[in-house]
Amino acid sequence: METPYQNHIDKADYDHVYEPAEDSFLLIDALEKDLEYLKNKNPTFCLEVGSGSGVVITAFGMAFPETFCMSTDVNFKACVMSKQTAAHNKVNLETCNMDLAGSFTDNVFDVIIFNPPYVVTDSEECGGSDITASWAGGVKGREITDRLLNMIPKKLANNGVFYLLLIEENIPDEVVQIMSNYGYKSETVIRRKVRNEQQLVLKIFK
Ligand SMILES: C[S@@+](CC[C@H](N)C(=O)[O-])C[C@H]1O[C@@H](n2cnc3c(N)ncnc32)[C@H](O)[C@@H]1O
Questions:
Q1: Domains, the chain
Q2: Which domain of life does the UniProt lineage start with (predicted)?
Q3: What digits encode the pLDDT tens for the residues 121-179?
């Protein structure tokens, strides 16, 4: 998968929007690793929740030009940047400035992608809509993630797949258990140690 062109972004804009980092690129690498699997799915609709700069959903859109790509972010500036990144790379992207995925039609998305705010913080720090929303994950770094996990059975198509980036502090085994209770299997697609952080991408599907 190609890395999207990002030179249109002014460095100062990253004071307000998450700058693509190792986690963003690990997620792209996970999608690339699963490219044949995803091609076989021939996805009609893909949603990235929390698209930030838009680098991940744009990479997806470049690899799947026939797929209708959508993204959400609570940070309005991230929505604007995602749209620009997609446009600079000739990807058609619909962006919505909203919380997670609650307002969408049920069971429509063939692929859902999320690189959540995963840093363990106090609950009070979590739930904003500015740059803090990029990293502040509350208890276990999972307060935002867990809310999306509970929406997945309603938002993912029956044959759909959900890619979720986690770190060890998020206790991935608990995520696997939560999704198993909903009838989903989970597999680790890729993992990488980044400085002191063990990052991994879970693939969640039926
Ligand atoms: C770690 S950043 C990832 C950004 C981008 N996807 C990437 O990989 O570079 C997390 C993103 O999730 C967004 N976010 C946090 N809480 C959210 C929520 N409740 N609904 C939608 N987006 C949210 C943040 O604003 C931020 O852009």
A1: 11-205 (3.40.50.150)
A2: Eukaryota
A3: 999 999 999 999 999 999 999 999 999 999 999 999 999 999 999 999 999 999 999 99
Contact by Cβ (8 Å): 30, 203: yes
Pick the residue whose CA is nearest to atom 14 on ligand 1: 50
Strands (E) located in the chain: 45-49, 68-73, 93-97, 109-114, 156-167, 185-194, 197-205
Task: Take residue 124 and report the two structure tokens written for it.
Answer: 């009070």
Quick one: pLDDT at residue 198? Answer: 97
The pLDDT of residue 111 is above 90:
yes
Q: Of 49, 99, 118, 132, which is best to mutate to test ligand 1, by the most ligand atoms within 8 angstroms of its C-beta?
A: 49
